[in-house]
Amino acid sequence: MTSAGGASANLRETALRSAHEALGATLVDFAGWLMPLRYSGEKAEHTAVREKAGLFDLSHMGEVRVTGPQAAGVLDHAMVGFLSKVAVGRARYTMITDEDGGVLDDLIVYRLADDDYLVVPNAANAATVLAALQERAQGFDARVEDRSADTALIALQGPAAVDILAPLTDADLSEIKYYAGYRHTVAGQPVLLARTGYTGEDGFELFIEPASAAPAVWDALLKAGEPHGLVPAGLSARDTLRLEAGMPLYGQELTRDLTPFDAGLGRVVKFEKGDFVGRAALERAAERSADRSGGRRLIGLSARGRRPIRKDMPLLRDGEQVGTLTSGAPSPTQGTPIAMAYVDADLDTAAGEFAVDVRGRTEPVDVVELPFYKRER
């Protein structure tokens, strides 16, 4: 961890670093980037996103363009989703796996034109995804280009997002549906304006090229959002928001050792499209998942007490370990600690008493349905 004034020379910086420093952010090393962990405090930032709005710098995420006559074919071959079926202007949550079905990354793909896609991997996996796409594109009439260094990404999330953004854009926001992205302007700057999100709230993502234009857009959004209670929000609040929304985090709920079916996300695997990398292994994983004859299952946990339950703590049933927590934190919205954990797919979670081993002390928990939080629509 590093303060705003003590950045490591080896860390990459977003175009908004100076803006974060001016706002008093605590900056940390995240996936090789110098990123804001918090500003005023994670609980206040989390609550603002749930009740009003928060503004996030997500410029550490990767941006990879796949273009050309066979761009759709590349992505159908390289990923588990049926990306050639995505309409222009729409987006799809999907995954890229290895031949054994293990998840290399979960990501979002936007179709900008018939022969033009934007792939957005997680920061820690951007190089892995880029290399895999370049290798899997061989033999196709398509180009894979890394645009990460030239692109900034800002996310505006929360119930007030539409009211804040509307005066600044030429877009009719009612026409931008969930999981869509179109070319528009915000604060006079051309952007790809998307509506996906990772907080469980409504909101928008602004992909900005060149990245140097991002500070002006950031400042305009903060100014427009001031009457609506908008606050800048860091990685810590983003993590508790996505946890409440039951959304997986790569490196925790998703890894190379897990398939999409283990994570309860088998729906993103589209066998009907034909052959693709990892298909045979994923067919076997689908069969195991269907009859619960093997594999794992992701469950939600809600603590009965106040003591925090965290990643890597053992999950017990009647005193015997049956799993390990993948994510855990106090929930600002629920007011109690929550967590996710993997258990064997055939484990009967309706039987027995569950608890988490917190450094030798057992903390009782209840198994609950995911997500922990779902906004009213």
Structure description:
The protein has 377 residues and is α+β, with helices and mostly antiparallel strands. It folds into 3 domains: 12-59 and 151-244, Probable tRNA modification gtpase trme, domain 1 (Gyrase A, domain 2); 60-147 and 259-291, Alpha-Beta Plaits; 292-377, Elongation Factor Tu (Ef-tu), domain 3. The chain contains 8 helices and 20 strands. The strands form 4 sheets. It has a 6-stranded mixed β-sheet with strand order 11-12-13-10-4-14, with helices on both faces. It has a 6-stranded antiparallel β-barrel with strand order 15-18-17-16-19-20. A 5-stranded antiparallel β-sheet has the order 6-7-8-5-9, covered by helices on one side. A hairpin with a 2-residue loop joins strand 11 and strand 12. Helix 2 packs across helix 7. It is globular. The protein starts with 11 loop residues before the first strand and ends in a 9-residue tail after the last strand. The model is unreliable at 1-7 (pLDDT under 50). Residues 296-374 form the Aminomethyltransferase C-terminal domain. This is Aminomethyltransferase. One of its GO terms (molecular function) is aminomethyltransferase activity.
User: Main beta sheet: strand number and arrangement?
Assistant: 6 strands, mixed
Mean pLDDT: 96
CATH fold-level label of the largest domain = Gyrase A, domain 2
- Order of neighbouring strands in the sheet with most strands: 11-12-13-10-4-14
Instruction: Specify the oligomeric state.
Output: single chain
Total strand count, please? 20
CATH class of the largest domain: Alpha Beta
